[in-house]
Amino acid sequence: MKKCISLLLALTLCLSMTGMSLAEEGKIFEGHSLVLTGWGDSAEQAATQAIVDKFEEDTGCEVNYMCITEEYDTKITAMIAAGETIDLAAMESGSIAYKLAAEGHFEPLDAYVEESGIDLENAIGAANYYDDEGNLISYSGNIELMTMFYSKDVFDEAGMAYPPSDPDEAWTWEEFVDVAKKLTLDANGLTPYDEGFDPENIVRYGVNMGFWWPIWGSFILSNGGEIVDADGNFVMNSAESVDALQKLADLALVEHCMPTPTAREGMPGSDVALLTGAYAMVIDGQWLALTMADSGVNFGMGALPKMGEEVVSVTTCGMNCIMANSTEKEAAWALNLYLQDPGKEITMFANGNRMPTDYKWLTEPEYLEQWAGEGNPARPEGYDGIIKMLMNNSVPPFTGTIVNFSDMIDIVNKEVDEVIYGNKTAQEGMDSAAEQIQTAGIELSIRGAN
Amino acid sequence: MIAAQKKMRRSNYGRGETVAGWLFALPAILGFVILMLVPMIVSLFLSMTDYSAFKAEINFIGLDNFRTMFGSTELYIKDSLKATAYYTVLNVPLSLLVAFLIALALNTNIRGRGIFRSIFYLPSIVPAVASCVVWLWLLNQQYGLLTTFIKSLGFGTPGWLWDKNTVIPTIVMTGLWGTGGTMVIFLAGLQGIPQVYYEALSVDGGNAWHKLWHITIPMLTPTIFFNAIMAVINSLQVFTQGFIMTKGGPGNASLFYVYYLYKQAFEKANMGYACALAWFLFVIIMILTAIIMKSQNKWVYYGGD
């Protein structure tokens, strides 16, 4: 009995000591402080703050989290110019990030990844960004891709089958346009197929999509085209690319199943438009699932239609960079791991905002259940197809793969505008873009091609 | 002895006054030196460097920035100059005319004149950003009040800010709303015209048109002159509407010069180049102002001369 008690006492002592030492060891960044900057709406801000609070509690590190909701690049530029401290920063890959990388503002992260025992092979690689020398400059555990949302109510009412979600069974472009036209209605209830259809008074559009690079990029690649070829030539004026771009513009200009850019200005947000039946389908980023679920839209998700042989969906992903002049790099990296790991904080994944990159989270039922389980309103019918599309049909963001993307895109955007407004044909617009890129002396190449 | 003392006292007094004078003027002088003169000198220096917010060192590159501005690699400056010139040409006469007409109306002996004056002045104290947001709603393609009104007249949906042919006129239109400041100056000018002239003209049998053409406008030319110079300067520096309402679009149709300068400075971090752009605008404004100043001998009538 005595033995028993002493053993128990010893055990208790041991446990409490381990507990103590664990607690002490846990506070590895006691007395440290760092600055985290990022963008995002209130939901994202709240979720990030929750992770930051947890990190502060676990490590003892003080975090000054600055959520900058507007003019992010401008403010970051001003902060850097003024020499203010930033340790860990979200970065927009398409604008200033690579200019900062070229000036050596970002800490290479390869060693950190290795030290943390992270195997990049076990995740969707498109979420990570590398500089011109091939150093990892941004590590993310979440990603977005372009996908399709549709109103189940509109399809049910029209008695039409839902868009396929499996990318292997995706609609061809013709099938997609046909459905979009059948679902487009003018004020008299006529479709673009009917005689007397009034394109000036459309009350429901079959489809809507924003015209930015991941969207037109997805269809150009699906059609067998490219943006920049392996030799660094701008090839958006090639036959396949131009064909894809013209088909997209013609959805509004010729087929009348998508709002013109002017008409789109007056439309409500995608969620409200699906809810009220002003759109039947929307092509947009995966993150929109959060808003859709929030607004109570009865929606489903489908694979993008394919223009050529296969579905292609361009991914996007914000960057998470540790500034090279940070004095708290270890703590910044530790915080980034907290922010990227769905295991630490699942909220932003489960509410529809993000997709994880780790294959474990994308394939194993026990993990899938946590963020894409049945009954989750943000993960509706067809979501398994979206995960399949991410695993099999997605490509990395152009912002990371094309050198000098940010200079190129200014010119391309302006010309794409001309095309979708119908001022120029896709061929004219892209030829003009190619000429301007040459005149401006913008040197393009594929990052890591050499 | 007494005289010497007196002299000293006077000079002490004089010195005291000088010091006091400087002290009173100091806030303004300090403000001007610290907030205007020094930044201007620094920006003139920076316009000859490759200063970037992202680079650690600053290199002196002489006039390279100015060469770049007129070189073939600069794709946007022409668009921005075109948009700004178009805006200025449209905005200056229209805003002067509207302000003048409102001032004329508010100078008559109508009932509730004070209230009308306040109401017409009010928009010019509304912050520009708030005014832009209100206009975005008025012009909304689907629900906008103005859009619905035009549609109900059977004209179809105007493209407003989202059509490259209408974007500049639309922006000018949204600006006319806030022309109250100019109007007040016109109003002050109108009230400075002695009634005797009008009375004399009435005696001679002149009608309202004669009054306007032969008295009001000639007597008001100094005011028109001042307002014209201010309107030209302000128009060339237009920024807010492009920044808030259109982001320079569609295409580059409303990429105003100052907005382009802002983009270079804060989105592309090319601070040195942005300074050069600013100095080029300064020179343009100076030349235009000089031309208008020079022209005043021909058309501005100063009553006293």
Automatic annotation (TrEMBL), chain B:
Q: Where is the ABC transmembrane type-1 domain?
A: 81-292
Which Pfam family, an example, fits this chain?
BPD_transp_1
The main location is membrane
List the GO terms this entry assigns under cellular component, sorted alphabetically: plasma membrane
Tell me the membrane topology, using the record's own terms.
Multi-pass membrane protein
Superkingdom of the source? Bacteria
Question: Keywords in UniProt for this one?
Answer: Cell membrane, Membrane, Transmembrane, Transmembrane helix, Transport
Report the family membership.
Answer: Belongs to the binding-protein-dependent transport system permease family.
The name this protein goes by in its record: Sugar ABC transporter permease
What are the top taxonomic ranks of the organism? Bacteria, Bacillati, Bacillota, Clostridia, Eubacteriales
